[in-house]
Amino acid sequence: MCVFFFVLFEFVPSLPPRKQEAIDRLGFGLLNKVAMLFPYDFWGGAIDTFGHLARNSCQRGEFFLFYSYSSVSGGPLLVALVAGESAITFEKAPPKEAVERALSVLRDIFTPKGIQVPDPLQVVCTRWGEDKFTFGSYSYVAVGSSGDDYDFLAENIGNGRVFFAGEATNRRYPATMHGALLSGLREAANICRIAGRRSVVQTEDKAVEEGLDLDDLFKSPDLSFGQFSVLHDPTPGSPDSTSLVRVRSSERKLGSDSVFLYGLISKKLVLELAVIDGDEKRLSLLSSSLGTKLVGRNGLSSQGEDLISRIKAAKSSGKTMPGIMNGIHHA
Q1: For 156-194, b where at least 16 C-beta lie within 10 A, e where not — what string?
Q2: Kind of pairing, strands 223-225 and 228-232?
Q3: pLDDT band for position 327 (50/70/90)?
Q4: Which residues contact 186 (CB under 8 A, 6 or more apart)?
Q5: pLDDT value at position 326?
Q6: Which GO terms describe its molecular function (predicted)?
Q7: pTM for this one?
Q8: Radius of gyration over alpha carbons of the chain, in Å?
Q9: Would you give the DSSP letter of residue 293?
Q10: What is the Cα–Cα distance from 78 to 125, expressed in whole angstroms?
Q11: Is the pLDDT of residue 238 over 70?
Q12: Nearest-CA neighbor of 165 among 183, 150, 182?
């Protein structure tokens, strides 16, 4: 909340009006604490909280409430709260002076009851207002604001590019540490969800681009017969090297794009397929006798991708590979 409230940096473009208006409506306050560890529990283990009314109304926020953490901390720990204007004054005074003042308040409460207040073994004073990472404690629902403002602050902006977490974005648990933690987990999940969705889109776009690349390559195949088109490996070598075969699906609805399947076979098998009469017999030979599996563009193995790269490089350089039975075109 301090990022918004104290305008620590500028958003370009500006925040959406609804988010900025929510920031303007919500309050952001300061609450400090003095945590004191005593040698024993002098206030009584059955007491969770007790209060103190200051004689001077200007100091009504100074040590107005004490929390006992004995039941949860494993030791006689007492925490004093300082709020409002007193919280600001508290940060200007040396810690030693603040502790002495807190002990004075405790002794005013318990000494008349015949209870001695010992000196604490250890003390910690917060300085949330001076902390450059917080500049305060937490948000609150100011006059004119509502719980909806927490929801507005939680909304991401930039079509899922900028996300917001913190206690001021958690309508259910505002002004709490666990509320801030839960908001971080919430946004981590949102980031993963949106990033995953974009990854799928990018993968699909890449597949489309790769499909277009293959379409360009197969515009001038080394060999074609029926629904089959073939691109040979341009690398000089054995006449039995691998070729890339593309088969256009015959089950195509009118007006729809063609569906292509791909496979890797030897040049020798290409010759056998070329002389067979009819695509059904060719497909039968591929699947049953030769055990060749036709797959979609994304299903090609690394061997297939390497072959495509070599074919692209050869065609880009203007090289041609003399194919077996070049120019055969029959069903």
Answers
A1: eeeeeeebbbbbbbbbeebbeeebbebbeeebeeeeeee
A2: antiparallel
A3: very low
A4: 154, 165, 170
A5: 45
A6: oxidoreductase activity
A7: 0.57
A8: 38
A9: P
A10: 12
A11: no
A12: 183
Instruction: Read off the pLDDT of residues 162-212 as tens digits, 9 standing for 90 and up.
Output: 999 999 999 999 999 999 999 999 999 999 998 888 776 665 555 555 555
Q: Indicate the Cα dihedral angle 88, 92, 97, 103, nearest 10°.
A: 10
DSSP assignment of 5-52, as one string? HTT-S--SSPPPHHHHHHHHHSEEE-EEEEEEE-SS-TT-TT--EEE-
Q: Read off φ and ψ for residue 303, nearest 5 degrees.
A: -65, -40
Write the CA distances from 102 to 33, 54, 63, 130, integer angstroms.
10, 12, 7, 20
Start-to-end Cα distance in the chain: 72
Contacts of 214-217 with C-beta under 8 Å, sequence gap 24+, read 214/246, 214/260, 214/262, 214/297, 214/308, 217/308, 217/311, 217/312, 217/315
Q: What value does the mean pLDDT of the chain take? A: 86
Do 129 and 88 touch, CB atoms closer than 8 A? yes
